[in-house]
Amino acid sequence: MYIRNRLIFRPLRSRFAGTLKRVRRSPIRALLASVLLQALWIVPAQGQKSEQQEPDLTKLSLADLTKVQIETVYGASKFGQKVTQAPSSVTIITADEIQKYGYRTLADLLRSVPGFYVSYDRQDAYIGVRGISRPSDYNTLVLILIDGHRVNENVYDGTYIDGEFVLDFDLIDRVEIIRGPGSSLYGTDAFFAVINIFTKRGRDLKGTEVSLSAGGQESYQGRVSYGRQFTNGLELLLSESLNDSKGNRQLFFPEFNSPATNFGISRDADGSRFHKTFVSAAYRDFTFHAAYDTWEKHIPTGSFGTVFGDSRTKSTDTRAYTELQYQHNFEGNWVVDARAYYDWYWYDGVYVYDYSGAGVQPFTLNQDYARGDWWGFGLSVSKPLLEKHRVTLGTEEIFNTKQVQGNYDLQPYTPYLFDQRSSTVAAVYLQDEFSIRKNLLLSAGLRFDQYSTFGGTLNPRLALIYSPVENTALKLLYGQAFRAPDDFEIYYHGVGFATNPALRPETVKTTELVFERYFHKYTSLSASGFYNEIGGLISQTTDPATGFIHFSNSEDVHGKGLEFQLVEKRPSGWEGRLSYTVQDAHDQLTGDNLSNAPKHLAKINLIAPLIPKRLFASFEGQEVSRRETVKEEFVGGFFAANATVFAKDLFGRLQASASLYNLFDKRFADPAGNEFLQRSIPQDGRNFRVKLTYRF
Amino acid sequence: MAPGNKTISGGAGRRRSSIKTLCRRSFLTFLFALTLSFWASTLLAQTTAKEYRIKAAFLFNFAQYVEWPPDTFKDANSPLTYCTIGDDPFQGMLDESLNAKSVGTHPLRVQHLKQAENFQGCQILFIGANEKKRITAVLETLKQSPVLVVGESSHFVQQGGTVGFLSEDNTIRFEVNLDVAQRAGLNISATLLSVAKTVINTAGGK
Predict the structure, then answer these.
(1) Which of B13, B42, B195 faces A62 most closely, judged by CB atoms?
(2) What H or E segment, with its residue span, contains residue B32?
(3) What is the CATH code for B49-200?
(4) Residue A108: burial class (beta carbons within 10 Å; 0-12, 13-18, 19+)
(5) Average pLDDT of chain A?
(6) In terms of Cα–Cα distance, which of A627, A568, A572, A565 is closest to A595?
(7) pLDDT per residue over A454-506, tens digit each?
(8) pTM as predicted
(9) Shortest CA distance to A286 belongs to which of A321, A322, A328, A320?
(10) Which residue range forms the structural domain that includes residue A588?
(11) Check: complex ipTM more than 0.90
(12) What is the distance between the terminal CA atoms of chain A, rounded to a whole angstrom?
């Protein structure tokens, strides 16, 4: 029996009988596994405002213009390439769509992406991709990059997509969602997908911008940004954001419906706030980025066996980084990218426990925390060779100088855990894009990572891209990826828990066939089929001899699926996307289907220009079929819809939008992890937001 | 796991789920009907924003290598006018690229024509791929007017256009029909011709 769920330990509660007993008792058929399926898509990426490096093309000579690549996706190969030539299925979402669809967070955006779904447990939001969403896994199976900088932290390996995402969403210029294994270029976490985010630059703001929004649940957000490009070429962007929300002030959980727990009603315990700062400065080939984000979320669900409805239970996540990047295109199309960075992660959780079970104050405050510091550097060189090759060679070193986990009771002070580690990762990678014939491309990549914790891992990717006729691509892809066991999984120990230094990475082998076709300059269709073999999933296991719980590589999961997407973008402003995914994933050993794995996903997105270039209306709908919970029950499928009206350049300077989320007030719930007594967590009903952005 | 182990919500829930299945089916049917309708419309030419930025830069450059007949401009400060027909394939990027720029003494100006009748005031006319059906008619109307007609459909210059863009190896190239240019009284410099992928010139025999 095994449970994979790190959250369950976060407040170290092995001695808190309630929770643990619940865990032991629960039919731990592990479902927790998850697995997945997903797919491929293609977007013609119109309307994107800027590329990785965008010189003023009108300054180029005619001869040079004939050499400019019509690049659209950067993250799939670490150089700009046409989406149809990328060794992956790619979706691109631009700042323009973010405004028009009224996306507030990365979670909102990912819900609209073909093959993706998101579950929210009122503390964190979890990405499901290719039919796999492991409960409470902190999104470790997806790598998120901001301007090429790795966001996943070094204790839980997590990457957070709700309010705790590092960036204010308004600062995003473009999001590339690159499906499939990416470890051959990026190493750990690039397991099911890489989400590559580009931030806006100084020139995109041209002055000071103030944005204010207000929404349901007494949510308010403000942002002040300044950006411009100076005549000497220096580009600067500074931004500050604040957010405060009361959350859902009254939540009802039938599982707690008893007089001792306020009849299941959790009042005023769902609030959140954040503070985000972002700085970007660019001069010639150098770019400096610094980001800071701190997010506090109260937990209304009584998870981890905490006192239900006590609003003091909350978690605070803080993430910061600085990075200096040098990027230059040398004569002969050499592209050099060098970067050095320093990163921080702090997590502080306060969990309120009633150890005696008598229900009388004072309760005990348990403090759970993590501290991560790390720095690193990366270098990649990409160069066309022998006419038919484009070779990319790179290296990356990460020094985890501090990886701390701790847990104690505040009053009386009782320490349960203090664990401090450091570790290193060193990697080299090589990729070659070989144009075998004019219409046949082979992309081959290989990366070797050496970890001080478990040793080495080698991950290849091969893609054969055939274009039988113009505007049609057939891609055969094979890749392997891994996720290194994180600090938490290897070293967490305490009463009832044991470390496992022998833990190996979990791995996936993905085979995928993608068909992409552009019909018309505005229309594209793609279809893909994929097969994933996931081995050695890191799951929680109880040692029958000692009764201690530890993590082990104990599950194998196979998943397969089909995905279809149709995209239409017209210059008149009409845009639409339709997609459908059918997927299946199950545990190889037990044959069980995975929890939180919907068989069907269908999405529709539509933007209509009400007044050309001025006023737009958008609609999006997402159908998610029923999902199994970790307690082997089902939550029903649902169709949720959002609508936004967006006015651009009012009086030349004002952008205004009004959005309704969960338009039809649909009642639905997301499966919960094992740290919950609830089998599922009800989601918010209809909600709204109005937003004004003024540019001085 | 045996299905019997699972707790499934009661009868009402099941009824709801059959309605849901129905909804899902109709949604899918709708999706596939749309897919099919799009399959039916086939006109080839994949494009991206970047592609149009490159094309806008080409158009800017072209003006520097073409000489119009002396009577084209009223005076030295008259604008040089770029025109597009129908929906703006540049989505504003041509306006952006040419903004506040000039060629020689002529400031640049962009006009987006809805209908293809009054392009006598244009010096450079761009016919996007979505206006392919109108190419013949437009060229017919223009005949030998001193307008540099630029297109992006396949065989554009063979059809009588002056300059045609091509996509090749993820880059943009172009072809020139020098015969047409000469008939229109346009003098195209050798620099521009040397960069062209092909030049149609029956008179000069190139």
Answers:
(1) B195
(2) helix B11-40
(3) 3.40.50
(4) buried
(5) 85
(6) A627
(7) 999 999 999 999 988 877 889 999 999 999 999 998 998 876 778 889 999 99
(8) 0.77
(9) A328
(10) 2-695
(11) no
(12) 60
